[in-house]
Structures are given as structure tokens and as C-alpha cells.
Structure to design on (278 residues):
């Protein structure tokens, strides 16, 4: 598909200043919810591509947040780009491009957003968006908000006891297998449970003293089985991370422990499934 800007768009958006003045912005609650769904809420320095950024209304909201995002605002219309550049938004790089030519390296963007750009939903555009996104090989079940939490995550993940956990996605694959098939089998053409699985999450913060955080961390099964010097070494490393000079504390000496509860749902589908057969 041609990436040339249509004559209608060229003329219709020529008065970029008027567009920026009178077009509405976006509700903060909607932006917050979207970033949470995209798993970049609270993730410092995440690279976000704002596709078809216009005069920068959405980029401006991203730039105002505390995460200090690396924002690449991509816009094909010259006048719109000039209007956006005049805002001098911190952390925003304004670049010429469109959904078919995104001027960033392959597998470099944490996420791509396109506000009011349903026309980008073409096969060619999706292929280009896919090209620039970082492969999501590891589900982001817990994205650390602080350096000390990242240290605890590294410790936890270094002790792999080969047990299935939420982050391994084995539970999801059980549902997805309902629709699997091979040349020799027909399996569950009518699945037992509806797909796709609904999913959402709620973030939380608990303020706890370092020793209480350690006891909570020690209750994880892969840590709980450690003994003697190995356990002591893990404890020393965890407490050292929590004791760093740049760690946030409240008046009671408590640290903010961040987390996210992920919940999923489905429903049973009436009727008996087709059995496996040859």
C-alpha cells in the first residue's frame, strides 16, 4: 500500500494550529488504563512509538508522566509536525513517517500507540508495527518499579525449580489447546471454555519494613527450600538492595513494595466437544 499522504489529509490538516487548539485531548483515566494494559505503566524509560502523532496531543500526555518515556512521535504531515515541534516536549523525538515506514530500528519499541488511527489497521501496517516491537518472549507478570525490586526479581528468577508458574503461561496453553489440530486429529472443534480468555489486572503498593519484605520473599517456594550459607547469602543480597541510599522510605522506615494482581476469566460453552479421532 502506498505511504503517500492523501490529498484530503494534506489539505484537511493544513491548519495545524487550529487543529491543536480545538481538537480535544484524552481523559487521564483512559491514558492510564491503556498504559497499564500495554504493561508500560510505571516502567521508566520505556520506548513508546506514537504513530500518527498529529500535533502531539497524546505524546504531550505521555511526556507529562513520571515514567520519563522515550517517545518517538511519528507523523507524515509537515504542518502537524511543525506544530508539535514548537511545543518542545521533553523526551519526545518528532520524526517523519507513517504506519508503513516507522523510522525506528527493528525490535526496539516497548509498545506502539495509535490514537484515533483505525485506518492503520491494514496487513501492511501491522507487519511494520510488528517489526519495530520488542519480542514479548517473557510475559511481564511483574515489572519492577525500583532497583531493589529488580534485584529481588533477579534472585527469584535465578532459582528455577522447574515448577510451572504464572509467568510460564502453561495455564493459558491448556485453554488454547482446545482449538489445536493436526492432520491426524480433530480436537475440540467445540471448546469446553470460551476463548479468548478475558484478562485484567490491578496494581497495588504495600509499605513494609525490610525484614517484613524479606520474610514475604522467603516464603516463595524456590527460596524457602534454601538452607544455611546459600539462604544467608540470598538474604544479605536482598537486604543490601533494600538498604541502598537511594531507596524510598517513609517516616516509619517502610519501603513501597509494588505489585500487580492479574485475574483472568472464561465461561463454559454448552454442548459436547468433538472427540479426538483419526
Amino acid at each position: 500500500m502506498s505511504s503517500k499522504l492523501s490529498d484530503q489529509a494534506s489539505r484537511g490538516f493544513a491548519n495545524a494550529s487550529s487543529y491543536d487548539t480545538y481538537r480535544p485531548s484524552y481523559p487521564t483515566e483512559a491514558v492510564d488504563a491503556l498504559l497499564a494494559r500495554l504493561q508500560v505503566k510505571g516502567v521508566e524509560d520505556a520506548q513508546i512509538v506514537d504513530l500518527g502523532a498529529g500535533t502531539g496531543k497524546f505524546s504531550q500526555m505521555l511526556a507529562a508522566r513520571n515514567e520519563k518515556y522515550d517517545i518517538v512521535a511519528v507523523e507524515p504531515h509537515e504542518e502537524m509536525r511543525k506544530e508539535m515541534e514548537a511545543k518542545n516536549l521533553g523526551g519526545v523525538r518528532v520524526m517523519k513517517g507513517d504506519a508503513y515506514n516507522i523510522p525506528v530500528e527493528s525490535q526496539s519499541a516497548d509498545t506502539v500507540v495509535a490514537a484515533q488511527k483505525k485506518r492503520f489497521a491494514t496487513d501492511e501496517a501491522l507487519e511494520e508495527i510488528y517489526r519495530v516491537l520488542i519480542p514479548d518472549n517473557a510475559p511481564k507478570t511483574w515489572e519492577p518499579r525500583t532497583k531493589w525490586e529488580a534485584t529481588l526479581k533477579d534472585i527469584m528468577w535465578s532459582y528455577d525449580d522447574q515448577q510451572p508458574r504464572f509467568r510460564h503461561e502453561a495455564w493459558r496453553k491448556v485453554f488454547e489447546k482446545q482449538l489445536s489440530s493436526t492432520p491426524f486429529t480433530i480436537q475440540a472443534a467445540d471448546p469446553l471454555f470460551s476463548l479468548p480468555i478475558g484478562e485484567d489486572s490491578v496494581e497495588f503498593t504495600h509499605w513494609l519494613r525490610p525484614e517484613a519484605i524479606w520474610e514475604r520473599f522467603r516464603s516463595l517456594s524456590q527460596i524457602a527450600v534454601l538452607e544455611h550459607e546459600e539462604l544467608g547469602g540470598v538474604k544479605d543480597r536482598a537486604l543490601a538492595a533494600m538498604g541502598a541510599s537511594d531507596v524510598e522510605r517513609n517516616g516509619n522506615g517502610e519501603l513501597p513494595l509494588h505489585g500487580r494482581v492479574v485475574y483472568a476469566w472464561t465461561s463454559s460453552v454448552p454442548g459436547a466437544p468433538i472427540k479426538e479421532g483419526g
Q: What stands out?
A: The longest strand covers residues 198-208. The mean pLDDT is 83.
